[in-house]
């Protein structure tokens, strides 16, 4: 049989040494002491087992029947009700420690059994088990977790009848998004990212909050600049003032964002929230500077270079207002699919 | 797996190292998975509740290890005769057995000592090796 050793694997996150020490401290501790089988070995359970497995071995039937040896563990199982009244032991404490770290799922990986004497109907089952080992953290296809190996001695009427070594993986399931999380992409759930406001651009965002689009104007050479910067990239002067944009502009270029879906961006204007493609426009303002924002009022696939747009302010949520650009009722809008050669940015 | 295996397993030749046991093909039905889980008194929801299994990252319910163990035990005694007794069985699980798959159990005798044989067992499904293991089987005085 494949041995006890597990090949150490690299993990993405450094292991917490104190946590691993706490896990290791469980090695050698009794998991179950004086456990008793809920039922003695009995013919009905043997028959149900053989029916499920399709096992027609003659030794498991008749007046001198024995139980299939591989039933060894079944006689110790707690079943639907579990083992009532058993004092919480090291096994429960270990599982609580693993559950608490997010390793909530369990899967059995190895089972090694030795059968010393056959079990017969009427045999009373008792057992003791010990935690043999707790592995370092491993990353598997199922997820990251720890292997826990226990060894159980199973007795029939007090006589050792078999041993059972069992290895499970306690792991954190690989993330799977539930349907509610996946579908709830409406504006109420998915918020736009917040702008990063600092002393160099605070004036811009103050203007937006007041429904004004403010363009910086260099105090040295008069050059307009957007986005806001601490100094002029033409003459280097640090002085500046602002001019308010008229709000007229045209689509200088654009891209359509298909993937990944960002519900916060695509669910504007009362859309139902389905995350779909959306257009990101590079808008040239009438004043000559350009800025990136959404093009609204037109389907994403009808945005065209040269399309006239008009500034408006979109209240995204209770905290955030953004400047966006609405395509007008220009009859040429979307008339020429071949013109959609935008791709800059 | 060769056709000779079946002849060896069912014929009168004494077991010898390298001998292949005739394979056993088992449809992995949802019923087998659930019946095996309950017969082994394993009520973990991942073995009978598909929705709960999905929440835990599995695409469907999957066979529990006790059923796999029982099926390997059945395969060995089916192939090695009505008088044989299983002394030791060690299995390791790999690819899960999901409903709709088929598992083919095969075995190779790796050692013979008197009437005790060691067998290497593999259970292959559509995803790969569901189970690999080794077994020690006593053939019994009147084996074969």
TrEMBL record, chain B:
Region (Disordered): 1-22
InterPro entries: HotDog_dom_sf, MaoC-like_dom
Organism superkingdom: Bacteria
Pfam families: MaoC_dehydratas
Residue ranges occupied by any MaoC-like domain in the UniProt entry: 16-112
Basic and acidic residues: bias regions: 1-10
Record family assignment: Belongs to the enoyl-CoA hydratase/isomerase family.
UniProt name for this protein: Beta-hydroxyacyl-ACP dehydratase
């Amino acid at each position: 049989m494949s041995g006890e050793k597990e090949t150490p694997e690299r993990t993405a996150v450094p292991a917490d040494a104190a946590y691993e020490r706490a896990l290791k401290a469980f090695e050698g501790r009794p998991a179950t002491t004086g456990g008793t089988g809920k039922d003695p070995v009995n013919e009905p359970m043997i028959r149900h087992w053989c029916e499920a497995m399709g096992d027609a071995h003659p030794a498991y039937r008749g007046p001198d029947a024995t139980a299939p040896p591989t039933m060894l563990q079944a006689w110790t199982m707690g079943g639907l009700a579990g083992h009532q009244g058993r004092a919480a032991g090291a096994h429960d404490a270990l599982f609580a420690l693993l559950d608490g770290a997010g390793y909530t799922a369990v899967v059995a990986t190895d089972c090694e059994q030795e059968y010393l004497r056959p079990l017969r109907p009427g045999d009373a089952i008792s057992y003791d088990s010990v935690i043999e080992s707790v592995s370092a953290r491993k990353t598997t296809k199922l997820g990251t977790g720890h292997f826990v190996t226990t060894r159980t001695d199973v007795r029939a009427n007090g006589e050792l009848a078999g041993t059972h070594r069992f290895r499970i993986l306690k792991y954190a399931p690989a993330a799977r998004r539930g349907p509610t999380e996946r579908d709830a992409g409406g504006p109420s759930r998915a918020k736009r990212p917040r702008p990063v406001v600092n002393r160099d651009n605070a004036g811009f965002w103050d203007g937006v909050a007041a429904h004004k689009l403010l363009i910086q104007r260099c105090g040295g050479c008069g050059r307009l600049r957007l986005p806001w910067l601490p100094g002029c990239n033409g003459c280097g002067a640090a002085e500046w003032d602002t001019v308010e944009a008229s709000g007229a502009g045209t689509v200088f270029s654009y891209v359509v964002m298909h993937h990944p879906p960002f519900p916060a961006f695509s669910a504007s204007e009362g859309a139902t929230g389905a995350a779909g493609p959306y257009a990101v426009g590079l808008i040239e303002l009438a004043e000559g500077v350009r800025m990136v924002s959404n093009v609204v009022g037109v389907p994403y696939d009808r945005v065209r270079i040269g399309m006239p747009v008009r500034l408006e302010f979109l209240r995204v949520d209770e905290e955030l207002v953004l400047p966006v650009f609405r395509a007008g009722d220009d009859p040429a809008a979307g008339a020429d699919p071949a013109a959609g050669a935008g791709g800059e940015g | 797996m060769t056709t000779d295996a079946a002849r060896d397993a069912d014929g009168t030749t004494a077991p010898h190292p390298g001998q292949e046991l005739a394979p056993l093909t088992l449809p992995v039905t949802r019923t087998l998975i659930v019946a095996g889980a309950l017969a082994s008194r394993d009520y973990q929801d991942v073995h009978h509740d598909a929705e709960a299994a999905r929440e835990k990252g599995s695409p469907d319910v999957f066979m529990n290890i006790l059923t796999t163990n029982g099926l390997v035990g059945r395969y060995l005694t089916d192939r090695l005769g009505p008088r044989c007794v299983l002394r030791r069985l060690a299995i390791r699980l790999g690819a899960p057995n999901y409903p709709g798959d088929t598992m083919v159990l095969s075995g190779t005798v790796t050692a013979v000592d008197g009437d005790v044989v060691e067998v290497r067992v593999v259970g292959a499904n559509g995803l790969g090796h569901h189970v690999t293991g080794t077994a020690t089987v006593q053939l019994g005085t009147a084996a074969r």
